[in-house]
Specification:
By secondary structure, this protein is an alpha+beta fold. It is built from 7 helices and 20 strands. Strands 11, 12, 13, 14, 15, 16, 17, 18, 19 and 20 form a 10-stranded mixed β-sheet that branches. Strand 6 and strand 7 form a beta hairpin. The chain is globular, with a radius of gyration of 22 Å. Bound molecules: FE2/S2 (inorganic) cluster and fe (ii) ion. Fe (ii) ion (FE2) binds next to helix 6.
Length: about 375
Amino acid sequence: MNTDNRPAREAYTTASWLDRERASIFQDAWTFVGTTHDFDESGDYRRVQCGSSSIVAVKDKQGELRAFHNLCRHRGVELLDDDSGNTGGSLVCPYHRWTYGLDGRLRGLPNKATCFPDLDRGSLSLKPAAIGQFKDLVFVNPNPDANFDDWITPLAGKEWPHDLFASDVREAVPLIYDLKCDWKVYVENAIDGYHLAYLHENTLGGPTPDQNIWERAGEHLIWYATEDGIRHRLPKKIRDEAGSVGTIESAKTPGYGGVYHLFPSTLIVPTPYGLSVSTLHPASPGKCRMNVRHWVGPWQSKEERIYIQGFDEKSGIISSDNWTKHPLDTGDFQTEDVWICEKVQRGLESPAYQHGPLSKGAGAEDPIRWFHEVLLSKMGP
Ligand code: FES
Ligand SMILES: [Fe+2]
């Protein structure tokens, strides 16, 4: 069994690997920050953590989206604390009130004449980050020179799930999951075609590995089911039951791409309820946080998602600590996935752990091999 091309067990369990990953992957990775509709007005912003960098995307006065490191150029204070909001016409540091325009330029600072007589404001603009947009989705990258087109172009000609802003789709309450597993464990599960018919027997009910396929698109992966000899976007069982929950008009075309994994940490998943965009953020060794945005059909209450197993009203966070039922009895395939990923992580923590063989096939565990190939190519020696 050749396991040379797989991340070692330590890649899932140690602080040293996570530090390397933050530097080698996330400091130069495209992370989903929001949709174009999050930026209606000038000053509208969203903040996202990209590895060790806090990045802010903001709409400037000319209507352009810009991205900056959320870092005052004086003593390095984080400028914005909230994940979203409106900054008004400028970004003001709460420490000594240095004030930046929405173009990132340092506009003013208190007592400049006496305290900073020689300071060149032009050299102390906010540090830029890169920003890119694809089909209403906005991504940022801490590396200002990162090339968005290189990353996204492989998806350009592919089928795409429904329009987030179609008239029959609306956004539901966003969810936050605290997961007791490394972010890679969650990705590997999401792209594993081998488990669908087994772990999810009572929810997705398939398809089996010979009835689904993942294909590579640059660094990304796209999943289709092939149960009827045509490509479609959801396992058959859900399609059969779709009548009971409704069908989103703008998403029912056969030939749809189903699940998308955008390297490294964005998962776009059509569900019986609509569409979700999830972003995984490493938190500490063996732990990550998943931010999920949902768009649902008109038959579903926008609030309904918050009744998902493990939701804690006080913190607003979903965690296995709060489960009251066995995950396999919840009827929610995402809860089943969380359960299994946390069990995988506990296995990885055992000194007796060794990689077992991965199944062959694009509808089985080949996608995990492909993910590892891209990941390891970026990790360096
Ligand atoms: S740290 Fe921002 S103004 Fe001093
Ligand atoms: Fe799953």
